[in-house]
Amino acid sequence: FFQYCLSGHPTLPCNVLKFKSTTIMLDCGLDMTSTLNFLPLPLVQSPRLSKLPGWVLKDGSTFLDKELKECSGHVFVDSVPEFCLPETELLDLSTVDVILISNYHCMMALPYITEYTGFTGTVYATEPTVQIGRLLMEELVNSIERVPKAQSASMWKNKEVQRLLPAPLKDAVEVSMWRKCYTMPEVNAALSKIQLVGYSQKIELFGAVQVTPLSSGYALGSSNWIIQSHYEKVSYVSGSSLLTTHPQPMDQASLKNSDVLILTGLTQIPTANPDGMVGEFCSNLAMTVRNGGNVLVPCYPSGVIYDLLECLYQYIDSAGLSNIPFYFISPVANSSLEFSQIFAEWLCHNKQTKVYLPEPPFPHAELIQTNKLKHYPSIHGDFSNDFKQPCVVFTGHPSLRFGDVVHFMELWGKSSLNTVIFTEPDFSYLDALAPYQPLAMKCVYCPIDTRLNFIQVSKLLKEVQPLHVVCPEQYTQPPPTQSHRTDLMIDCQPPAMSYRRAEVLTLPYKRRYEKIEIMPDLADSLVPLEIKPGISLATVSAVLHTKDNKHVLQLPPKPPQAPASKKRKRVSDDVPECKSLKPLLSGSIPVDQFVQTLEKHGFSDVKVEDTAKGHIVLLQEAETLIQLEEDSTHIICDNDEPLRVKLRDLVLKFLQKF
Amino acid sequence: MPEIKVTPLGAGQDVGRSCVLVSIAGKNVMLDCGMHMGYNDDRRFPDFSYITQNGRLTDFLDCVIISHFHLDHCGALPYFSEMVGYDGPIYMTHPTKAICPILLEDYRKITVDKKGETNFFTSQMIKDCMKKVVAVHLHQTVQVDEELEIKAYYAGHVLGAAMFQIKVGCESVVYTGDYNMTPDRHLGAAWIDKCRPDLLITESTYATTIRDSKRCRERDFLKKVHETVERGGKVLIPVFALGRAQELCILLETFWERMNLKAPIYFSTGLTEKANHYYKLFITWTNQKIRKTFVQRNMFEFKHIKAFDRAFADNPGPMVVFATPGMLHAGQSLQIFRKWAGNEKNMVIMPGYCVQGTVGHKILSGQRKLEMEGRQILEVKMQVEYMSFSAHADAKGIMQLIRQAEPRNVLLVHGEAKKMEFLKQKIEQEFHVSCFMPANGETTTILTNPCIPVDISLGLLKRETAIGPLPDAKKPKLMHGTLLMKDNSFRLVSPEQALKELGLAEHQLRFTCRVHIQDPRKEHETVLRVYNHLKGILKDYSVQHLPDGSITVESILIQATAHSEDQGTKVLLVSWTYQDEELGSYLTSLLKKGLPQST
Asked: Where does the Beta-Casp domain start and stop, copy by copy (chain B) (predicted)?
């Protein structure tokens, strides 16, 4: 049982599990922090960005000045942004049988895996995961493809050159593995390989392994996975939440009795309380708008935005913001809002009961109906006519490198009346802002990450009691910037096994049992014997059939010929065909009773001698002796088969068969 | 022999008040809890006293499963749970859970408020009953208790309709509820995997019908509606608020749009908008096309179809009215029917099955003079059309489902006895499985032959699969083990392990046989001859000649000594343990025959 670790990012995992002859990929996260090294992609040419000076080496050489630009002391690659893919060399990915997806954020590398590695297996995910995952991919592809950027920089990736660059470019890992965004046809091809599953659905893989998604409480359709055979259970916990937001609550009980629990996707901001952050978000938003400024919220088109809109729904009237327009701009804004309303079965109880009324589960339906929230596919078209300031704009991408957010950063960055509020925790907000410096607009950091924190993890582990915990190495030590905070790491016994990118782990457990089925006719033929109170046993001689990893025991076929004698089943003239198996024996033979039995069966000249360990029973006329000891019996006789068989059967009467 | 027992309390050789009791491996499950549209007396509900005369139902039933929201499948539920008394779990899908209470309330209102019946369940009882409902997802395995699990499959038919698999250990039953094997304008087709249940309980409403293509029926329907409207007639389409109504609305809506028709279409009850709203919110349960396009255009937002007011019925000119209920047995559809029946320009289209005793059934069987309440005779002059739009599987569909699920037995419910008989023969001929069709109250017993799952120690399994020189898939592998049974756990282990676990020592039984051989040669030459002889015969065995002069055949030891008195006779001592009994016995008899003449 091995785990191949293909991603070093703890919240965007990609692991491959070899479990009982099946190869299972767990998630396929795409590390997009690489895009922070690139210049933003503006929809319309930005004079500021195009005037940035090229980067010059210390020795004055300028051969990189087309590829690298400098902005406020930072160096950026001037090219189409690229993403850091999961490791593809660690094992042959065409051998992956199935991919299990835990939530829509963790499937963004799917097209790279399914379309470029010879993958021929099946992907399993819940319906909301697939639908919203598609929206995220669509938005990503759209926001990159609509800005044709001829230039693609590659010179800086040369190892010799990279060494000369300033940080963080110098330290960027695996730059040769960075890839441009995939296309819509590739997205569609990848998604067509997905099979939809529901929570608590048992999915059989090749008869050997069963996988089951469980609600993880983090996002619409987000799931943890149980991977088990009859005797081993691996729980894959990825992106789980115990907070009550919109999704169905996390199913913890089903994680119990795991041999191994793989733990990924914990909160990225362990020190921030999501509720407090939402409060700060609202108050900062209100303050800015009241002062006549605009608010920009860089966000993904699904997820936390639903919760923010719900908070605002309750908040705007009391805060006197009823007349402020809220804009949600994304090529998938409409779809995201519509889809959120049709997944009632995946929502928390409160939202589910609304659907029974029938009312839409999310109040943003009402915000749209009352015209307080308006959504647009992009800043072009209707939006430019409707656009009124001051206003609040929700748009992507949270990295601030592409999407309509770039436009608003350029538009509003110069005024200190405006505020950008960061709610998505995936990117460092300072890094995200770097290419926009110097900036007059206010920046507020309210990261909302509802995933498990370390206190919740330790409670969870106490609750479900896995034998072993496996997690990314980042979780086994305090955060680098807060090395004194030993509470910000996983604390469990035995200590968690950690992994890092491109590592192979051997998972610590040993199987001892397997399931086998006994056919009814064989079961009928068994003769159970109570050997101790409450314990019975039966010897089983049977034919084993193994097909599709399932084992079945059947009655052995009857011997083809009739038995030669009454007692012998086989004809002794034929070479015994297969080694027939005789049971083991146990028990001891009381000499007095044995002699009595012999006499009863017509042996009249029985003589008994005592030895150090037992007795010798002599049958004088037959020149036969039987050594009886506590744990053994030895019959020594002439070649008189009927006699030997008779003695054998008499001895066997005293013994138990196993 | 383990067995599964099935007793229909309703829907046995009948359509209406579906209710089937199943006993499987000690668990009792009730499938559906419906009412009968054809009766207004005690017979409208299943006879629950069959389950127990005086005990509490909760003690006798492990769970209740409702397949879909039609009243003939859930109409008796509040009576059953609140008036007779049942507190155990009731399972249904989310859409069923959402819509079921609304139809129950509707039914209650008609019965109590309009017909003035007392001793009927109340609104509060409906609410209390629904609190006992656990909603299930498609394909989710729901663990009712440690042994009993259920799983829902998509059934088409109406929004949220499901088939259910009920499983205990290796034994399982599938109950189809009502299903549809062909997708329609708003729902997908039923689907089930090859789950090989011991028993498939299937509806058989259209046991003998093989319906023509849906497209033809739709064209026919539109033609008839169009012609009637063109000549200024009124069209009445009695429907149930949810289900066929939406399909026909989509059909008419698109037709009106395409043909640019102006005649008004009305939908009679206040349920309309609400009903359509359910379809919008549960769009994941509709067919693929609607699901894919719902963001751009939601098929359940109708432009041409408006709410009906009872005054409209007297308006002059053509119109189309969808009115509930669907079998013309009460309510608005019956009122409108009475108003329009006398005019031959008008038309009533019955789009679904009608239960015996209903006005719908009467006019479909050709009756044109109906006796109404107060001995009034109503003469039906309007055209009566029947179009099978109700979404049940036809004979072809039922056979298709059987092919998909591969059951070992089939049991028919929810159909008419005569038609069932025909289908039963067909099923038995084609699939060679037993097919049953019990009447209400009649118990069918099906013997099952479940395998017994046990735990086998990996050591034993590996050992046995490794035996034999070459793994030959065709050759059966023999294995020997000891089955330990303690409490309810069954473990198959090697005999050695069994002894060890029980703290017992092995008793070794050994045989040593003296075989006399006439051979004047020296001892070691005799041994060599014996060795060559055995080697030649026992080709599949490991025969070895050891340096100390002995021979082994597998673990059997053969030693030669000279006879103390007769130098021309050699004594072979053949020694083996009981575990090698067969080979040892064989060897002694082989050696007794003497050695072949050397050449």
From this structure: 245-363
